[in-house]
């Protein structure tokens, strides 16, 4: 089975297309594990019209609220900068899909990550905070992979415009390398995609770029 992990999702209508690869290619996945930073209660309040089938995922003594939404497993309350949160989410996905950790962590996707309370930062400081965020997520993914016994290469895909004023291309690539990426590439394709705000109250259809950071575990 070939799966993927999408971190820091918000609304299902804005969910990441995890078939995307560089140069406008497609790589079909058998399943996608999605995580959300919000608790299930907060998430449901933001998505009142979305039907879900909730369940509780247990890993050793830890539990996370999870649900099946439109055929995908979603795990809630996952801080993507914390390796243990990613570890627990992946274990829940492994149990549900009867898959290996490699099947889930081989391809990891994020879209337009933004620091919390971004309105409190000026433009310069927001870029710095977002660089810290991306570097932290990359490091957490690598550390979670080690905890799960994954070895080899992880494709870490980022969907973000090259001219994103919150973290332009050069700053993004620098942050990914600071987090541990060995190589970062970008294609020349522009993708029209919806992107939601941190509070889940608004979204924009914008031209995005796809970046690939190669993580060695």
Order of helices and strands: EEEEHEEEHHEHEHEEEE
Separation of the first and last Cα atoms: 21 Å
Give me the Rg, rounded.
Answer: 16 Å
Counted beta strands: 13
**Which spans have pLDDT < 50 for at least 5 consecutive residues?**
none
Helical content stands at 25-40%
The number of helical runs is: 5
| Percent strand | 25-35%
Mean pLDDT: 93
CATH structural class: Alpha Beta
CATH architecture assignment: 3-Layer(aba) Sandwich
Structural class: alpha/beta
Q: How is the main sheet built?
A: 9 strands, mixed
Query: How many domains is the backbone divided into?
Result: 1
Strand order of the largest sheet: 5-6-7-4-1-8-9-13-10
Q: How would the global form be characterised? A: globular
Can you give a write-up of this model?
The chain is of the alpha/beta class and 217 residues long. It has a single domain (3-216), classed as 3-Layer(aba) Sandwich (Rossmann fold), CATH 3.40.50. Helices cover 29% and strands 33% of the residues. The protein is built from 5 helices and 13 strands. It has helices at 40-46, 83-97, 101-105, 123-147, 169-179, and strands spanning 3-9, 20-21, 25-26, 31-36, 53-59, 62-69, 72-75, 107-111, 153-159, 183-186, 191-196, 203-208, 210-216. The strands form 3 sheets. Strands 5-6-7-4-1-8-9-13-10 form a 9-stranded mixed beta sheet. The chain has a two-stranded antiparallel sheet with strand order 2-3. The relative contact order is 0.18.
Task: Write out key terms for the chains shown.
33% strand, Rossmann fold, alpha/beta, 217 residues, nine-stranded mixed beta sheet, 29% helix, two-stranded antiparallel ribbon
